[in-house]
């Protein structure tokens, strides 16, 4: 019948969508690609409903392709005869592993119907956690910054996978950006960290996001004129 790609949101079981919860509760098998997503999924499904898939920690493209073919072969019969769900943190179409499974199914199991259930992604979660307003007309770029990378561009940037915060921070500051970091935002069982001090995040962590802006280039919204004004 159908494979659903379900976005679980940033890692808090309370931030999954109503539709996402309905799909998980009705699926015959729910596949999880990692421990954190599994922890969220088990808030809504029994352990016996979960399916295991093996994904090696490697950059070897041939090994990765073999792993995704094996995953598709495991998922396809369930999705053909009933309903399967593959869950990811965030949104299935934003910096997610789900795209690999979808492409593999399209190539080798085209009869499987695929439907995406969107989730709250880091793109929106960070704005709330860091108290950042992305105003109308703003130019915002999403980039990946693994291993100390610091891609630059428009006046506002959101960087994912900031695994070497001190190196990325130094490069962004040299490019004229002010930077705030968030780590493990809204994740159940983990302390969320929000800071502009790179030394506080020196330890490598995949779940770190950076928000960078060039303050001199930002325009104030029209209602900013109300700040400090009182009706008294």
UniProtKB/TrEMBL annotation:
<comment type="pathway">
    <text>Cofactor biosynthesis; adenosylcobalamin biosynthesis.</text>
</comment>
<dbReference type="Pfam" id="PF00590">
    <property type="entry name" value="TP_methylase"/>
</dbReference>
<dbReference type="InterPro" id="IPR003043">
    <property type="entry name" value="Uropor_MeTrfase_CS"/>
</dbReference>
<dbReference type="GO" id="GO:0032259">
    <property type="term" value="P:methylation"/>
</dbReference>
<feature type="domain" description="Tetrapyrrole methylase">
    <location>
        <begin position="2"/>
        <end position="193"/>
    </location>
</feature>
<dbReference type="InterPro" id="IPR014777">
    <property type="entry name" value="4pyrrole_Mease_sub1"/>
</dbReference>
<protein>
    <submittedName>
        <fullName>Cobalt-factor-II C20-methyltransferase</fullName>
        <ecNumber>2.1.1.130</ecNumber>
    </submittedName>
</protein>
<keyword id="KW-0489">Methyltransferase</keyword>
<dbReference type="InterPro" id="IPR012382">
    <property type="entry name" value="CobI/CbiL"/>
</dbReference>
<dbReference type="InterPro" id="IPR000878">
    <property type="entry name" value="4pyrrol_Mease"/>
</dbReference>
<keyword id="KW-0808">Transferase</keyword>
<dbReference type="GO" id="GO:0030788">
    <property type="term" value="F:precorrin-2 C20-methyltransferase activity"/>
</dbReference>
<dbReference type="InterPro" id="IPR035996">
    <property type="entry name" value="4pyrrol_Methylase_sf"/>
</dbReference>
<comment type="similarity">
    <text>Belongs to the precorrin methyltransferase family.</text>
</comment>
<keyword id="KW-0169">Cobalamin biosynthesis</keyword>
<dbReference type="GO" id="GO:0009236">
    <property type="term" value="P:cobalamin biosynthetic process"/>
</dbReference>
């Amino acid at each position: 019948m159908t494979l659903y790609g379900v976005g679980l949101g940033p890692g808090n079981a309370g931030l999954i969508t109503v539709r996402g919860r309905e799909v998980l509760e009705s699926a015959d098998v729910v596949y999880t690609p990692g421990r954190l997503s599994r922890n969220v999924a088990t808030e809504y499904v029994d352990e016996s409903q979960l399916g295991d898939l093996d994904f090696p920690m490697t950059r070897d493209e041939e090994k990765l392709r073999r792993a995704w073919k094996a995953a598709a072969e495991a998922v396809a019969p369930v999705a053909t005869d009933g309903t399967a769900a593959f869950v990811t943190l965030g949104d299935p179409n934003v910096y997610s592993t789900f795209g690999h499974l979808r492409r593999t199914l399209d190539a080798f199991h085209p009869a499987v119907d695929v439907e995406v259930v969107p989730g709250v992604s880091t793109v929106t979660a960070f704005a709330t956690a860091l108290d950042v307003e992305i105003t109308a007309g703003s130019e915002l770029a999403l980039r990946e910054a693994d291993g100390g990378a610091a891609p630059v561009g428009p006046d506002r940037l959101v960087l994912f996978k900031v695994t070497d915060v001190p190196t990325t921070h130094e490069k962004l500051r040299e490019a004229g950006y002010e930077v705030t970091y968030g780590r493990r935002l809204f994740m159940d069982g983990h302390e969320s960290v929000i800071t502009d001090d790179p030394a506080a995040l020196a330890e490598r962590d995949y779940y770190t996001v950076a928000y960078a802006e060039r303050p001199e280039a930002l325009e104030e919204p029209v209602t900013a004129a109300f700040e400090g004004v009182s009706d008294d």
